[in-house]
Amino acid sequence: MAPVLKHGRGKPLTSQTKEVLYCLYKYFENECNNNPSSIMTPTQLVAKSTGISIASVRKVVSESKCRPSDQEVTFKSPKKKPNRKPTIVIDNFDQQVIRRTIHDFHITNKEVPTLKTLHAKLKEDIDYKGCVSTLRKHVMSLGFNWKQTEDNRKLLMEKHEIRYLRINYLMKIAEYRE
Questions:
Q1: Tens digits of per-residue pLDDT, 7-51?
Q2: How far apart are CA 154 and CA 119, in angstroms?
Q3: Per its UniProt entry, which superkingdom is the organism in (predicted)?
Q4: What is the pTM of this model?
Q5: What angle do CA 108, 111, 114 make, to 5 degrees?
Q6: DSSP of 117-148, one letter per residue?
Q7: In this predicted model, what pLDDT tens digit does every residue of 100-122 receive, in sequence order?
């Protein structure tokens, strides 16, 4: 017997795979009808020989029985769902506004910025169109991350490399002004 290969869990079966399973089922069904002393059912034989679960084999067989018997059995492949929302692209100006809003949160509001409060502030300032999870992606791409404190809270902080580059840049500007 062929080695048993496990089909990926959660992955839908393609139409070609369904056709092969159905042909195997028909073959094993004929063999079981010719040899009634068989211990296993055709569904169990197909599942054991292919490594696909019995439930999946049953679904394929029931899908073939739902179709009229006078025409050839065809199966449909699953279709990929399109993305519901388009990706929101922000320009450099909006990126700088987001960065400045995060930095000013401590100074003006005297509180730690959270994504919800930051989202509300950006909605009224620059009419930010994205949701909170999109804002999280934009904040991460700007070089911020969350650091855990001793009291198990997470603070939004800029990465060390970016902070170091900004400090060096500001120091060079100060040197040139002198």
A1: 556 678 888 888 888 889 989 888 888 887 778 888 888 888 888
A2: 17
A3: Eukaryota
A4: 0.45
A5: 110
A6: HHHHHHHHHH---S-HHHHHHHHHHTTEEEEE
A7: 888 887 778 777 788 888 899 88
Question: How far is it, in rounded angstroms, from Cα 45 to Cα 51?
Answer: 10
List beta partners, residue 154: 148
How do beta strands 144-148 and 154-158 pair? Answer: antiparallel
Residues forming beta bridges with residue 157, ordered by sequence position: 145
Q: Which two tokens stand for residue 61?
A: 């067989």
Within 10 angstroms of residue 59's Cβ, the number of other Cβ atoms is: 14
In terms of Cβ atoms closer than 10 Å to its own Cβ (0-12, 13-18, 19+), residue 94 is middle
Name residue 174's amino acid. Answer: A
Q: If you search the block for the tokens 């040899």, which residue do you land on? A: 35
What's the Cα-to-Cα distance from 174 to each of 24, 38, 70, 166, 178, rounded to whole Å? 78, 89, 86, 12, 6
Q: Which two tokens stand for residue 175?
A: 């040197």
Question: Helix (H, G, I), strand (E, B), or coil: what is residue 178?
Answer: coil
Q: Let me know if 26 is exposed, middle or buried by CB neighbors in 10 A (0-12, 13-18, 19+).
A: middle
